[in-house]
Structure formats: C-alpha cells, structure tokens
Amino acid sequence: MLFPLASDYLVWLLVAALASFAYYCSRNPHLAAPWARVFRSRAAVASAVVLAFFVGVGLLDSVHYRPRLPATDPAAPPVYSVEVRSLLDLALTRLRTRLEITYSAPLATRLLQKERIERPDGTSVRDYPRLRFGGQHLKDEADLSQDVALRIVAGLALAAAVWSLVVLAGRRTLARRWPFVPWDAAAIALAALLALAGPVAMLAAGYHVLGTNQVGSDVLYQALKSIRISLVIGTLTTLVLLPLGIAAGITAGYFKGWLDDAVQYVYTTLNSIPGVLLIAASVLMVQVYIDTHPELFPTSAQRADFRLLSLCAILGAVDWTGLARLLRGETLKLAQLDYIEAAHAFGVSHVRILTRHILPNVTHIVVITLVLSFSGLVLAEAVLSYIGVGVDPSTISFGTMINAARLEMAREPMVWWSLAAAFVFMFALVLAANLFADAVRDGFDPRVRV
Amino acid sequence: MLAYIVRRTLYAIPILVGINLFTFALFFLVNTPDDMARMQLGVKRVTPEAIQKWKADRGYDKPLLYNAGQDGVRSVSETIFFEKSLKLFAFDFGRAEDNRDIANEIRTRMGPSLALAVPVFLVGLAVNITFALGMAFFRATYLDFWGVILCVAMMSISSLFYIIGGQYLISKLWHLAPISGYEGGLDALKFLVMPVIIGIISSFGGSARFYRTVFLEEMGKDYVRTARAKGLAESVVMFRHVLKNGLIPVLTGVVVVIPTLFLGSLISESFFGIPGLGSYTIDAIQAQDFAVVRSMVFIGSALYIVGLLLTDISYTMVDPRVRFG
Q1: In this complex, which of A285, A426, A427 lies closest to B30 when CB atoms are compared?
Q2: Domain membership flag for residue A412
Q3: For residue A138, what pLDDT is reported?
Q4: How many CB atoms lie within 10 A of CB B172?
Q5: What's the CATH number where A261 sits?
Q6: Do A291 and B153 touch (CB under 8 A)?
Q7: Residue A205, in any domain of the structure
Q8: Rounded distance, CA A48 to CA A185, Å?
Q9: Are B242 and B215 in contact, with CB atoms under 8 Å apart?
C-alpha cells in the first residue's frame, strides 16, 4: 500500500516546480542563455552528473509504502505493516535486513570483537566469530582476497558495459540536442561514478562493503539512506525561504515607505538572533509540541517526518532575510528605471508591475541564492543533528551517523568506517553542490557578462 | 560623531525590544508552560499537582501578560512576561534547572570561551588574509588555481570532521596535546592549542576564498591601474593600495562578530570539553533548560547589535567617504 509521507508530497511538488521552471527557462532567452553558460563549464557538467546520482537515490527514497503482511486467512482484508519503507529500502533489502551482532570491518568475514564460541565437541573458545552474512558464501576464508578481486573485476566489467551503453545513447540524443555542452566531462564523471558503483554493488551482494556499526547494521545502507535527508533539508527549505524572501524583498524595495521600514525592522531583528540559537530554540519548541501531542503521529515515521519538515520550515524562516535584503536592493534600483516609469504611465497595476516587470528581472538573484544556500544547509544538518536539534534521533542522517560514531575513533581497535562513509558521501555531495553553485553564479551574475 | 553614535544606539533599542517580544512569543505562546512541564516531567504518568509544583518552582505559575488578581503596578509586574522577559534587559537571567544563577555562570564561563575564540579569530583572520592576498598576487597561475581548489574542497568538509580528524591525528596518533579538558591559568595553554588550530583550519576555506574575491575585485579598479601605470612595483600596489582598500569590505563581516566571540563556539567547546559559554548552551539545549537557552538568545542578540554598531562606527573611521548621514 502506498503510504506517502508529507515530505514525499513536497519533494514531488518541488520536482514538478523545478520541471516547470526548466520549461519556463527554455522558453525565455534571458534565462536560457545563463543556463547555457552554466553548462559550458566542465566542472558544472561533471558535478551535475554526481548530483544527479544523489538526486536519483533521494527520489527513490521518497516513494514510501507499507508492506502487506502475509495474510493467514485469504478472505480477510489485507493487513499492512506499521513499518514504513521506501523503494530504496526495497532495492536494498539485502543490505537492510542482513544485520550482524555488532561492529565488523569493511569486507570482513569475522566480527571485530572476540566472543565465546561453542565448538561441536562441547568445549568453548574465545575467538572472533564468523559474521552471519558478510562473506558467508565463502567455504574457506583464505579465498577472501580472490573472491573480492573477482567481484571487483566483474563490477568494473559491468560498469564498462553500462557506461558504453549510456555514452552511445547519449551521443545520439543529448549531444545532438545540446552540442555546446562539454559532454566529455560528463562521460568522465559518469565513468568515475560507475567505476565506484559497479564493484561496490557486486561486493555488497556478499559482504558489508563499508562494514557494520555498533548495532550491526550495514554502514553503506545508512549512508545511502542519509542522502534523502540531506537533499530534503537542502531543497525543501526553499519552499519556505522563497515566498518569504521574494514577497518581503520586492514589496519593500518597490513600495518603500513604512512597508520598507517594517520589512527592514523584521529582518534586522531576526538577523540579530544568532542563527544556531534561534534554530535550537525553535526546534526545542517543536519537540515540546510533538511530545505533548502523540495522538497526531500514528507511526514513528510520521513523527520523524514532521520533525524533518519543521526543521526545514525553521531553517527557511531563519534564512529568508539574506534573500530579502538582496532583492530589496535590486528592486530599489529597478524601480527607478524608465520601463517601470513607463508602465506606471500606462496605468499598469502594482501587482502586474511586480509580477511581470520586477520579478523576471530579479530571477538571477533568486537562482544564485538558492543554489549557493544548498551546500550550507547540508552542512548545517550535520551540526544541528550533532547538537540534538536536527532531525529526529531515530532518523538515519549524516548528522546522526556522525553523532553515533563520534567516540569510535578513540576505541581500541579503532572503528573508522562509519565516520569515513559519512565523510566521503557528504564530501562528494557538498563538493559537487559547491562546484555547481559556482558555475551557476558565474553564469547568472550580470557582472561576468561584460 | 557623538550624535551619530547616540542615534545608532537609540536605533538599536526597538530591535532589542523586538527580540525580547519574539523570544517571549517563541518560549511561552507557541507552547504553554503546562506543555513544557509535561515534557520535562515525562508525558505519561504526570499528575496535575506535579505540573503545578514544577511551574511554581520556576515561577511559571503566573499569568502571561496581565495579572487580574493584583492591582496597580503589580498587575503588570507579577506576570511571566515581566519576570522572565523584561528582566532580561536588567541582565537578570534567573536560575537554571540545576538552581544555579545563570548570570553568575555566564561570568565564570566567559573566560574560557574568550581564551578559545579570540586566538581563533585573530590568528585565523591573519592566516586567511595572507593566503587570500597571496592567491590574488599570483592570480591566474597554477598557484592560484590550486589554492582555490583547496579552498573549495576545505569548504565542503563539515566542521565536525575537522574536529574528529584533528583529535585523532594530534592527540591519539601524535600525542601532542590532551584530547579534551581544561584547566585555569597557564595550564590552559596545552588544552587550547589543538582547538585553536582546528578552529582556524575549519574556517579557512570559506574565508580565504571570499577574501580572494574581495581583493580581486579591488584589483580591477581604476586607481590600481593608475598606480601600476605610474610605475609602482606590484608589491607596493598590493600592500599599500589593494590590501588597505580591500580591508574595508572585509571589515563588515569581521567587526560584527567581535562581540559575539563572548559566546564561544558551540561545537568545538563541547567536543574539547572547554567549560565556556558554547558548551553551556549545548548542555542547556540537550537538557532542554529553557531558561538558559532564553538567556543565551537574548545575550547573543544584544552582542550582535553591539557588533552592528561597532561596524558602523569603524566604517566612518576607515572610510572618509562615509558621512554620518
């Protein structure tokens, strides 16, 4: 049974909005030209490929359902589990369900800790027990390196096959439609991505590629699940930020007078409160609300989802001031120009001037601000979750992963793989976002054009 | 000048009042004191008597805005708004959950916070500006290119990883400094070295790159071309002209944070066990100690407003074009 969470609706709404914005851009030369400039940059094209991978994982993780429980009586109405899963969970069933007892290193066949093992002859010995799932298909553990090597080769072969197919197909379609894009950068990024993903997928079928954490769950699975949270926080925040920032910014800059004073007062006041403290205080208040109204959240997934959405709303309500300030300044400048004067002279209404003449001319500021804010939000999630005012502690996110693993480096023997996994995934996501944002800024900034 | 400062100070008052009202609304109108009591005492198995006692102990048992049971001034002063919100203006912060005086706690914790935040701020600023100036000097060479790449890569790493990785390298692998803790006096030095270094590194990427763009923008201006045209050496152009003028936009971002250095840094203080205001705030957030969080929000905002004021004043001092309009 499909069971969309509130954030799923918003995610797909955002996808639809982005699609229509893309269509709008393609119809308007003044927006199509900067995008063409963006995609002439090799760094932007390569990072777009990496971002597309993350977005793909995030979207798969945004279709939730409740699995049907096996019916005892065929005539009875179907019963659904209270556990909410996503398509990504379905695809990663093997990773999700194959729980070990506790820590195990990447590609290990045995646990990290010694335990008492019963021998067939009745005696017991303290040794590192074999994992329940990782490397269980191996008859002899000495074959481990050979098996791993074989799987890596098979993964690379698979990756090469997929890569050639995609490149061939792309050359016939995409490259003809947009010949100016440096497609070789995309092909290289795709090759690197597939060269990682192929072997990992092959290995993941038999091992815990990135090891297991304290409760024995697969770290690779956790890292993949964290992607959606990062993307949701980085993007859904804009749904709050955008209307507030645009409305306040352009009306203040256009109408001036008391409205301008009021908007400036509100954003100076909000800006004066240190961001982290404001977010922390607001999230504490949301948590009080959640705890005192348990009846509103039948499943724990819904509770966690409400907290996630509140966090997005709070981040948006804190961050809109920057956009509003920029838009106010730009609108002040635009409102002086002749074409606005002319519109006034023709008796065009204020609403129409704002939507038809001002808004399209500040779009570049909006786009630049949104793209630049994304990576900051992804990083903020980790810090906030570490403090305890981020996502629900039961949600798997980069922040909660780091928080759970922060003492593991001091352990003996050291457990580094949870942190390493969170680091690599976050670094790839934020770096790609930063590079893409730089290209977008360069493409849209009117100062670059001259 | 004096009139200007007075006017700017007066302008800060409505903003402080706004912050005060906002925090009051956030802490008492979004959720009632009853909700907070229920949450603190555990949602299930809570009796009305326990809630009443929790509220009475903390002074939350009064009406929010107007006390009809009292007359005269007391009808306004015997309320939560007066006791918990207006008294913040007099730096009367009340007591924390552990019944300690918050104002006293803030005074004692300010020292360690400053001991960490000031070196990070000063040394970090010097390092970032030096590096940014270097990149601008060698612009459009491989040095500049890889410098920018380094900055972007360092920007993309969460501050948490700098701390965790630094602790691992410096303390566990190289045994150069204790992993966490704090002592007063000169002994503090050995505990502070590592957090300071890590603090500087984690702010490096973003700042150095930002200062580089500032300097590059400055270098494109006419007066720089004039200076070059009259035959000045590139180093003179950089240090006498570009550095001096480039510091004006840098000033905006820098002066405003000086007062907020008192607040310390939230994350590194709690990681390194430094008993400053940052770790105090984090502990309060985790223990859901609303009185402390409320006080810190107010102090933080007040300090930020002082920072804005200082920014305006410093502008008028460094840039003679800015008039006291």
Answers
A1: A285
A2: yes
A3: 79
A4: 13
A5: 1.10.3720.10
A6: no
A7: no
A8: 10
A9: yes
Pick the range with the lowest mean pLDDT from A174-178, B32-36, B106-110, B306-310: B32-36
Could you give the number of structural domains in chain A?
1
Contact A242, A317 (CB under 8 A): no
Band of residue B323 on the pLDDT scale cut at 50, 70, 90: low
**Which amino acid, B149?**
I
How many CB atoms lie under 10 A from the CB of residue B63?
14
B260·A274 Cβ contact <8 A: yes
Instruction: Using alpha carbons only, give the angle A34, A40, A46 rounded to the nearest 5 degrees.
Output: 115
A contacts of B293 (beta carbons < 8 Å): 277, 280-281, 284
For B166, name the nearest residue in chain A, comparing CA atoms only: A409
Q: In CATH terms, is domain B102-318 a member of 1.10.3720.10? A: yes
Q: Are the C-beta atoms of residues B186 and B133 closer than 8 Å to each other?
A: no
Distance from CA of A260 to the nearest CA of B (A): 15
Q: Rounded to a whole number, what is the distance in Å from the CA of B310 to chain A's nearest CA?
A: 14
Q: Best residue in A50, A270, A276 to probe B by mutation, most B CBs within 10 Å?
A: A276
Q: Distance, in angstroms, between A242 CA and closest chain B CA?
A: 22
Contact A116, A124 (CB under 8 A): yes
**How far is CA B272 from each of CA B171, B193, B269, B295, rounded to the nearest angstrom?**
11, 11, 5, 23
**Model pLDDT for residues A378-388, shown as the tens digit of each residue:** 999 998 988 88
Phi-psi region of A309 (alpha: psi -120 to 50; beta: other; left: phi over 0): alpha
DSSP B170: I
Contact criterion met (CB < 8 Å) for B26 and A282: yes
- Amino acid identity for residue B38 in this structure: R
Measured CA to CA in angstroms, residue A200 lies from A110, A139, A186, A205, A228 at distances of 19, 22, 21, 9, 20
Task: Tell me whether residue A142 is in a domain.
Answer: no
H/E stretch holding A124 reads strand A124-127
Contact predicate B196/B265, CB 8 Å: no
Q: Is the Cβ pair A268, B15 closer than 8 Å?
A: yes
Question: Longest Cα pair distance anywhere in chain B, in angstroms?
Answer: 84
Q: What average pLDDT does the structure give for chain B?
A: 84
Q: pLDDT category, B324, cuts 50, 70, 90?
A: low
Q: Is B285 in contact with A284 (Cβ distance < 8 A)?
A: yes
Q: What is the mean pLDDT of chain A?
A: 88
For B153-163, how does the pLDDT look when each residue is reduced to its tens digit (9 = 90+)?
Answer: 999 999 889 98
Provide the 3-class DSSP secondary structure of residue B103.
helix
For residues B287 and B285, what is the distance between their CA atoms, to the nearest angstrom?
5
pTM comes to 0.90
- The β-bridge partners of A80 are A68
Chain A residues in contact with B152 by the CB 8 A cut-off are 431, 434-435, 438
Asked if A17 has any chain B CB less than 8 Å from its own CB, the reply is: no
Per domain, the residue ranges of chain B are: 2-90, 102-318
Tell me which chain A residues have a C-beta less than 8 angstroms from the C-beta of B11. Answer: none
Q: What is the pLDDT of residue A162?
A: 94
Q: Which domain covers residue A252, as residue numbers?
A: 6-64+218-448
- Which residues on chain A are in Cβ contact (under 8 Å) with B158? 379, 382-383, 398, 402, 423, 426, 430
Q: What are B57's two structure tokens?
A: 């102990």
Distance CA A186, CA A283 (A): 40
State the complex-level ipTM.
Answer: 0.86
DSSP state of A126: E
Summarize pLDDT for A75-121 with one digit per residue, the tens: 777 778 778 888 888 888 888 888 888 888 888 888 887 877 777 77
Structural domain includes residue A327:
yes
Write out the two tokens for A349: 């209404």
Q: How far apart are the C-alpha atoms of A46 and A32, rounded to whole Å?
A: 20
- Asked which of A132-146, B54-68, B171-185 is least confident by mean pLDDT, the reply is B54-68
- Alpha-carbon A75 to chain mean position: 42
pLDDT in tens, B188-211: 788 888 899 999 999 899 899 999
